[in-house]
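re: ur question from yesterday

yeah so i grabbed the chain u mentioned. its 404 aa long if i counted rite. heres the sequnce exactly as i have it in my notes:
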Amino acid sequence: MEERSLRITGADKNFFGKLTSRLTKMLIPTKVGFNSMLISMKRNNLLKVFENLQKENDYDQEENEKKFENTYAIYLESLDKYVLDSIYKKVKNNAATEFEKNALSKYYEVTSLKENEYIEYKYRKQKYLLELDYENIIKNAKSKITKKYINFYIYKMDAIYKAILKNYSIKLADSTNAYDSAKEWIYTKIFYTLEEYIQNILSLKIQNNEDGKCDELKEEYEKYEKYSVGKLDTRDNIEKNMVILGISRKLFTHSLPLVVAEQCYEKLLTDARILVQDTKVATKREKAYQMLINLIEDYNIKLLSTKVYWDKPEKREEYKKFWDNYKEISKQKETNFSEYIQQKEVLFIKNDIKNIEDSKIDYSKIIKYYKRKLVDYGAIRELRNSIKNIEGKYKKVRSTAVNV
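ran it thru and got these structure tokens back, copy pasting raw so excuse formatting
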């Protein structure tokens, strides 16, 4: 009897264990559905408040803004609760889809920033929750709700990305030693965040460009799209980041100010110069060189020409001379295009040599490459120095170059 009793008890435990597990899995969708209903209610309320905010009625605008922020906070709380209550339980009980597993993994990735990077965590978490609901809406919501939500989504994402980039800008512009060792990582984060915005938000703006505000960005976006397919090498990545920076000058002039954009350009220039001097294959080096010339033009024409404040007055005067020469050369663009291209390239090379001669980085190889180009263009003359050896033959000992 004792043995039989034990066997029955064991069987009962096994049976009830399985039953409990199945019931838990069955009840989870109900919980998800309940949360979804709450989220839907709070979302609809938020969209109504957002519509009132967009009307821009000066009389009660401040009140509308307060109401919007409060409603937005409640909406985010419901999304956060959905992740913790529903997705977490489904993952724990092996009832989650791949989407839900990835969603929870991303959630923990974002929350890991909380201790050391609270400002970034604050905005990254909002971004994560909005993206989660946006994906759900695109799959399931009616077209009318989708359109309303997209307008809100773009509006809020613009503000979030600007806040994230502003946080990076403050760190990059900090002259103390606190961030010196981490600046390389900050550059990476800036380019990653800009690309993320272009892929997810700018593309959405262009698709829903009813007011024509994004027309001037379409051409730049199409340039970026060329680098969004296939495997990219180092040169491709530098070119892609150059296009991304160009777009950022039109979208993030305040959150990514000129002084920070300048540092980003200088980082790309450093990478491009090193690529040219380290590339052994002649054809690949020539392509890298052409990319560097395009980058120098972007940096000088798109960025430095808009610079108002200069730390050193002598640098400002030097740039004025460069700019005057560039404008003079540009006059030939219509009449003699090939001459214009060559003279422009010579100007860029000479200017870049001045900028890197006293650099802490060893640029000796690229300076030699630059001078070889100037000799080929007839911009400088090579002087061949030689001595007579004991056999009476002349031997070259060194080569110098002088301006023509």
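noticed a couple things. The chain is about 75% helix and 5% strand. also The CA atoms of residues 188 and 328 lie 37 Å apart.
anyway ttyl
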